[in-house]
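Entry 14. Structure prediction run on the chain below.
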Amino acid sequence: MRLNRLIDHTNLKPEATSSDIKKLVDEAIENDFYSVCVNSSFVKLIKDYNKDVKITAVVGFPLGAMATSAKAYETKCAIEDGANEIDMVIEIGRLKEKDYDYVIEDIKAVKEACGNNILKVIVETCLLTEEEIIKACDLAVKAGADFVKTSTGFSTDGAKAKNIATMRKTVGPNIGVKASGGIHTASEALEMVEAGASRIGASKSIEICAEDK
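Output returned:
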């Protein structure tokens, strides 16, 4: 298995410049990564720079704690600018207080704004119990998500194989599972794939693929 085609090559740093993002695109093309993953403000710049690369844009990032209408509008703008996939963050506090109607409607609004484009739902596993991870994944599937995703990489921890296994078991074989956050080596990436991940989000993609040859 070649890992490169599973990787969303990522730069979500707040200090990222246009030059950094263009370098990310060049690296993605050179290494045949699946997509680049960026903050939504960079989508148009990427589309103007290279129309061939697939673009994943994050929405409601990294906290997920903004109005649903704001997430939906950010999604609409990102899609109009040329994004192919959207990675949204759920409202974590609402999940923890069991306001499931809010969580599912939040996801549905973003999925509607996505249209036929892929939606990944970031549940931030490090802040959840196993029961909450299962519930978040269940709600994401019911709301029409195409993927569930472990982490933003901006919280207290990143992807763990045990959480990937829980997510895969919950969503079944037809929904994607993305492992993201703290994946730095090929062995770590392979551990996630073996646990059930079908996509990897990483900023250390070059190093991962250098080991994978």
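The mean pLDDT is 97.
Filed with the rest of this week's runs.
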